[in-house]
Structure formats: C-alpha cells, structure tokens
User: Fold these one by one.
Assistant:
Number 1:
Amino acid sequence: MIQKTKIILKRPHLSEKSTDLTKFNQYTFEVAENANKEEIKRAVKENYKVDVLKVRIINLPKKKKIWRNKTSYQKRNKKAFVTLKEGQKIELGV
C-alpha cells in the first residue's frame, strides 16, 4: 500500500518581522490548513535536520475585498512559528 505524503510546509514566510525573529531562533512558515503542531514539528525536523523546541500556530481570518460592487474574500494562510534549539539555524536565503 502506497501512502500519499501530505505537504505540510508550503514555504517559509519572509517578512521584516519574521527576519527579526531569527535573532531569537524563531522561524516562520506557511503551512497546510489541516496541519497540527506535531506534523509541523516532524516536517521541520526532517526537511532541515534541526531540533524543534516549540511550535506556535496562528490561523489568519479571510479578508473581505469589494470591487465594482462585488464581494469576494482573499484567502489567508495558516502560519507556524517554530523555535529551534540554541545554536541551530536554518538558511532561508535571507
């Protein structure tokens, strides 16, 4: 039986705030909507070969857009803040 692998980590979230968090060994990732903390921890550990201490998740609400009297919603992603063990880091191209 072949298991389908879920994509947990979509991409690193690079912004001014997230690059400032790297000073404190915290990294930000956009993750799948149905991912939980344990899956995110396992995915970061496997992909980047680091030890994860803590994972915090934020689920952003949808943003309402109105254009020419038509209402739509901008999709918002789920973000995870990952804290690494002291002395370890991830190179994200910043």
Note: The radius of gyration is 16 Å.
Number 2:
Amino acid sequence: MPRLIFDEDKCKGCRLCTTVCPKKIVVMAEDRINAKGFHPATVKNQEECIGCKFCATMCPDCVIKIVKD
C-alpha cells in the first residue's frame, strides 16, 4: 500500500498538489501552521492513496514522498 509522507515545514501552501490528486485526498491542514507560517499540505484517508505520484511530481519544493510498502 502506498503511503504519502509530507515534509510539512517545507510546504509553502501553494496548493498545487491538491489540484492533481485523482482521489482528492491531498488537502491543506487548516488546523495547523508550519515553520514558514503556512497551512501545510497533508493527506486525509491515507488508505485511499493509489500511489500515482501526481502530487509529488507537481510539488515545486519536493515536499511529498511516496513510499510503497
């Protein structure tokens, strides 16, 4: 099962990753602020990830990694 890992402190909140997720599970964490002062990207419903890597490819700051167990 693929697993998304976010380096949340590097996220600048551009939301590009949220626009390409076919499952719509990459969202902005509205409940917290990262070290840069932005709401970071995160994943809701990790188990729904299909490992397409669209979010990681779209991220200009290489914040997202996909790990396949």
Note: The helical segments are 16-20, 54-58.
Number 3:
Amino acid sequence: MIKHIVMWRVRGESVAEKEANIERVCTGFMALRGKIPGLLHLELGVDVSAIDYACDVVLYTEFERQEDLAGYASHPLHEQLKKELEGVRTARHQVDYVVNSIKGN
C-alpha cells in the first residue's frame, strides 16, 4: 500500500479569507472521493493547533500500488482541481511512502 500525504499553507489576508480558501481546498478534494480509480481512501484535516509553523490543511490518501498514485496524480479531475486551486496555497509539502517499508513497522 502507498500512502500519499500532502500539507498546505493557505493564503488569506483575513481570517475569513483564509477560512474560505481552506474550505475550497477541502470541498474540492472531498469531491474526488469515489471518482478516481485506485484511490482507496481520502481524508482531509484542518489544523487546530494554531502553531505558527503548522500547515493549514492535510490530505491523507491511500493507494494499493504506485501506479494507482500515478493515475491519481494525472487524472483529469485531479488536474482540474489543481488549476482551480492555483494561487490558494503559499506552501506545499508532500510525503509518499510504502507501508511497512521502514524497519520496525
């Protein structure tokens, strides 16, 4: 199994603008559920820590194979969403890993 985790810091000149952009990200990605072959699980979370170095939104997804993740990355619905969200993020971090690939797991 492949886990794909992405975290974003989101733009917002005001609290309301930032909250609206966070909602755009969450709503957009939630709409992908059940629409992309190989996407087994999709979950989003919004930071509640308010720590200055925290990201605002995290996306957690699971795929059976690396090929499924590649298919998701290039899927037209995912590509469309990325275009719709252009300019919303100020930073993006990503980790993709194979479950049980690290000693001790």
Note: The chain has a mean pLDDT of 95.
